[in-house]
Design a protein that fits this description.
Blueprint: H1 10-19, H2 26-36, E1 41-44, H3 51-66, E2 77-80, H4 84-97, E3 105-108, H5 115-123, E4 127-130, H6 132-140, E5 151-155, H7 157-162, H8 166-175, E6 181-186, H9 191-198, E7 205-208, E8 219-225, H10 231-241, E9 247-250, H11 254-266, E10 271-274, H12 280-292, E11 297-300, E12 315-318, H13 325-332, E13 342-348, H14 353-363, E14 368-370, H15 407-418, H16 438-443, H17 461-465, H18 546-549
Parallel strand pairs: 1-6, 1-7, 2-4, 2-5, 3-4, 5-6, 8-13, 8-14, 9-11, 9-12, 10-11, 12-13
Helix pairs in contact: 2-3, 3-4, 13-14
Length: 550
């Protein structure tokens, strides 16, 4: 069967021929006619069997046949991808298959600025390939319109729904039209995820070409039992000794990726690494270097295990076995793609025997064991790490503060201390015992004999006789005594006579032989001062007695 028999148009057939494909894969033969007919499809197949082309080719033809929309800012097809690398790869495939087709596409993912992505949306994009996070962000800003959406695709659906994207997917589904075509594709589809995926489809056609848990027969799988400290020596030895064109090494943790890259560089092997903590630019740069052959080894976490198509990848090495057995299928599926052969090598230490058993149970066979110069010598599993105790808080003097008890501990202590008490530690009011009369108390001898003490009269006599109404005593209101107004504090002048009442003879007249210091003293005559130039000089001027003058 050829692509022409699937009902594809001539421009698509020409682009497929230029891409190097001659015959469709089983998933493509079953899926393309259903998508062209407008049916919802749930497709499951082995990794590396061409699932991207199975939905990209019919989507391009359907959008071309349905015509264009007047508003260029609306999207007509939306493809969701779980990772940035897979989204970028899907976008490249749409560009490759849609050459000279008149349709535009753009890719949206986080980790980079949204400026270029928003400009691509404003220019017009019929097809959008996006990650859920960035898509929801742009939809919240009102930059994406989904009114005319015709086709909705979930790529790697099990990963999308099972690894925490379920809530994002449901929010996106609520924002798109109900009348649409929905396609789901993945390599693995557990029963619970398949049930959840069917809720999003309407009368779907399920396509399962190969067993979901099977691996490609063209991949040679082997196993090395090695202690954890010797894994780095075995990895460098295999890369140097075997005929390794390029190798993709998988680590379980991000710190492990950086450590493996450093150790390989010390051994003289050029290696790059990608993981979630790296920026999108650094990840894309490392991937481009590996694809171009500039770097021989790329170390990655499971982020690179989904959907990446690396042409001619010869080896996949599992430095750490994955915690999920399904991830093993996706890891080794990066090699042996499109009918090529490949080799998958796995390292196993004593702490990973449980994961190995789960993987062999899933694929239904035992991995072939190989010998090395570093055999496993440690058969005692590493005990689980106990969490370190939290450091005590210190006060201003550097002393350890007492640990604060929780609300439930304080409640239990209060309840135990108070006996019968409420849950919050408050004591219930106890009923007072019945008071015995004086007669009963004296008969028992607990009180002394009553002495003849005159009783204190607290009630008026008339009230006791019952001849008048009870007298109500009220407190006497104190009399109001107005206080004398206080004099405002101010300057109190002495009782002195004004100047006008003094005799005129006694008033001091300035300039009449008196001074300010002593009114009765006569003023001394002013000294004679010779003007300058009349036989005197500044240096020989006679000194002036200013005290005598004053």
């Amino acid at each position: 069967m050829t692509f022409q028999e699937l009902g594809l148009c001539a421009p698509l057939l020409e682009n497929v021929r230029r891409s190097g494909y001659t015959e469709p894969t089983p998933i493509q033969r079953e899926t393309v006619p259903l998508v062209l007919a407008g049916r919802d499809v749930l497709g499951c197949a082995q990794t590396g069997t061409g699932k991207t082309a199975a939905f990209a080719l019919p989507i391009l033809q359907r959008l071309k046949e349905s015509g264009s929309v007047n508003d260029s800012r609306v999207i007509r097809a939306l493809i969701l991808s779980p990772t940035r690398e897979l989204a970028q790869q899907t976008y490249d495939n749409f560009i490759l298959y849609g050459k000279k087709f008149g349709l535009t596409a753009c890719v949206l993912f986080g980790g980079v600025s949204q400026v270029n992505q928003v400009e691509a949306l404003h220019r017009g994009a019929d097809i959008v390939i996006a990650c859920p996070g960035r898509l929801l962000d742009l939809m919240g800003q009102g930059l994406i319109r989904t009114d005319y959406l015709e086709i909705f695709v979930l790529d790697e659906a099990d990963r999308m729904l099972d690894m925490g994207f379920i809530h994002d997917v449901r929010r996106i589904v609520k924002a798109i039209p109900e009348k649409r075509q929905t396609l789901l594709f993945s390599a693995t589809m557990p029963a619970e995820v398949e049930k959840l995926a069917l809720d999003l489809l309407k009368d779907p056609e399920t396509v399962k070409v190969d067993p979901v848990t099977s691996t490609v027969d063209a991949i040679d799988q082997c196993l090395y039992y090695v202690d954890k400290p010797n894994k780095r020596h075995l990895l460098a030895h295999l890369i140097k000794s075997e005929d390794v064109e390029n190798a993709l090494v998988f680590s379980r943790t991000k710190h492990g990726v950086d450590r493996i890259v450093r150790e390989l560089k010390r051994s003289g092997i050029d290696a790059v690494g990608i993981h979630g903590d790296k920026s999108q630019g650094a990840r894309q740069n490392a991937l481009n270097r590996f694809k171009s052959g500039e770097s021989k080894v790329m170390v990655a976490t499971d982020i690179a295990a989904r959907g990446l198509d690396i042409a001619g990848l010869s080896h996949v090495i599992n430095y750490d076995l994955p915690n999920e057995p399904e991830s093993y299928i996706h890891r080794i599926g990066r090699t042996g793609r499109a009918g090529r052969s490949g080799r998958a090598i796995s390292f196993c230490c004593i702490d990973e025997t449980k994961q190995l058993g789960q993987i062999e149970k899933l694929i239904g066979k035992h991995l072939r064991e190989e010998k090395s110069e570093w055999p496993m010598e440690n058969f005692t599993p590493t005990p689980p790490k106990t969490p370190a105790p939290r450091p005590a808080k210190l006060n201003s003097r550097g002393e350890a503060m007492p640990e604060r008890k929780s609300r439930f501990e304080r409640r239990n202590e209060n309840t135990a201390r108070n006996g019968k008490g409420e849950s919050r530690g408050r004591q219930l009011p106890q009923t007072a015992p019945a008071k015995k009369s004086e007669k009963q108390t004296r008969e028992k001898g607990s009180l002394p004999e009553k002495r003849n003490v005159p009783e204190k009269r607290t009630v008026p006599e008339k009230r006791r006789e019952g001849t008048a109404a009870p007298v109500i005593r009220t407190a006497k209101r104190p009399e109001f005594r107005p206080q004398k107004p206080r004099k405002k504090p101010g300057l109190q002048l002495p009782d002195a006579k004004p100047w006008e009442e003094e005799p005129a003879a006694e008033r001091p007249v300035f300039g009449s032989g008196t001074s300010l210091r002593n009114d009765t003293a006569e003023r001394a005559p002013a000294p004679e001062i010779k003007p300058i130039g009349q036989g005197t000089s500044l240096h020989s001027t006679t000194a002036i007695d200013w005290d005598a003058y004053l």
